[in-house]
């Protein structure tokens, strides 16, 4: 087992509660057991321990982090530790005065999610009406001088609208636009059949994103990552398991990624019980897929193992049933057919017409 | 996300920062010393760059008053003049400009 590297980023999932019910939400659908959300004091301790461990970026996320009334205190704590602090939000529960207060306490940046630029379609995906409020929030963000990232999760019903999303982000004065192709875990896996776009649509989206990237260089950064269901190569999930990103879930479970707790049989530890530094370096869950010792063939002898780290462990578990298997998104996986079949079905009329809307995870 | 490192080599765009520009860091970006490595980190939304000593030195001079040409002169006075130095400074600053991390560089 290789020595533990240091984490650069802490994803602090402050709560799984959210006013939106997005059908592609990456929160877990079910959790083993759930205890209460960490309190203010516990989160402040976690932020301090994370900073000492080397974390320099904190993403305050969820669920919807604004649903916590101690968010101001947590922002101030993160900033006092010199960490660059971003709020990852739906924007829905925000008031202008509260945003001003957060900025004053040291919030560095805000990432605002958009489901679509058309109100009806945005509501269909989010399960509630939210577009108008988001536009209002984006205006406040710019008025207060905070850098804005616009995030759009791409799926079959909106992937043709990349030019519209670029125009939306430009109009809002965003510094970054994240065009995030859906990853099929959590609620997105539940709804996969209705979300996977066709290969041709992805190609057009990529071309539109590339043209906009060129045109806007130096003004707005555009992120477009090809979805692993269509690349035949896995993504370097989280930059490698337990390598540079640390997630702390609402109930205090420390994880290598948002979904890791859904892998049965892994033992994760809680920040209530053990210092973060020890969990990061020693806990069985973090050590399980760190380095290369855990790899099976074809990963073990593959030239790309240091590039993609074998792909996504959660995807391997949920699609193949073995978290140590090669990610089935990879063309070398013996189970690659699972992903091929899913993407070939894209464009066919969905079998189940009903989308399943997210709710807070339920205990098993 | 581990900080990326600025790589030498051509950029598709090929823009070159003007010698008369008076660059300063954009408000969204912050410099700090990394407590693990002692290196200077440039942090910006959901990203970071680990700077080498030269990069940190260059950014230390980007106060919005010094021109790029003066920054090059100041570094040359410290380390000895060379054509490579001028190119390195402009290349580094242009890469930051491409990431929208500088102000005071508009023509």
Task: Tell me the layout of helices and strands.
The complex is a heterodimer of chains A (364) and B (107).
Chain A: E1 9-13, E2 30-31, H1 40-53, E3 57-61, H2 71-80, E4 84-89, H3 96-105, E5 109-114, H4 119-126, H5 131-143, E6 148-154, H6 162-171, E7 176-181, H7 187-190, H8 192-195, H9 199-216, E8 221-225, H10 228-231, E9 245-248, E10 254-255, H11 276-282, H12 284-287, H13 305-308, H14 313-320, H15 336-344, E11 362-363
Parallel strand pairs in A: 1-3, 1-9, 2-11, 3-4, 4-5, 5-6, 6-7, 7-8
Antiparallel strand pairs in A: 9-10
Helix pairs in contact in A: 1-2
Chain B: E1 24-25, E2 30-33, E3 40-44, E4 47-50, H1 53-61, H2 68-79, H3 83-98, E5 102-103
Antiparallel strand pairs in B: 1-5, 2-3, 3-4
Helix pairs in contact in B: 2-3
Question: Can you summarize this structure?
Answer:
Chain A is an alpha/beta fold and 364 residues long. Chain A has helices at residues 40-53, 71-80, 96-105, 119-126, 131-143, 162-171, 187-190, 192-195, 199-216, 228-231, 276-282, 284-287, 305-308, 313-320, 336-344; strands at residues 9-13, 30-31, 57-61, 84-89, 109-114, 148-154, 176-181, 221-225, 245-248, 254-255, 362-363.
Q: How does this structure look, described?
A:
- The complex is a heterodimer of chains A (about 375) and B (about 110).
- By secondary structure, chain A is an alpha/beta fold.
- Chain A contains 15 helices and 11 strands.
- Chain A has a 9-stranded mixed sheet. In chain A, strands 2-11 form a two-stranded parallel sheet.
- Chain A is globular, with a radius of gyration of 20 Å.
- With about 110 residues, chain B is an alpha+beta fold.
- In chain B, about 35% of the residues lie in helices and about 15% in strands.
- Chain B has 3 helices and 5 strands, in the order E-E-E-E-H-H-H-E.
- In chain B, the strands form 2 sheets. Chain B has a 3-stranded antiparallel sheet, with no helix packed on it.
- In chain B, helix 2 crosses helix 3.
- Chain B is globular.
- Chain B starts with about 25 loop residues before the first strand and ends with a strand.
- Classes of the chains: A alpha/beta (about 375), B alpha+beta (about 110).
- At the A-B interface, loops of A face strand 3 of B.
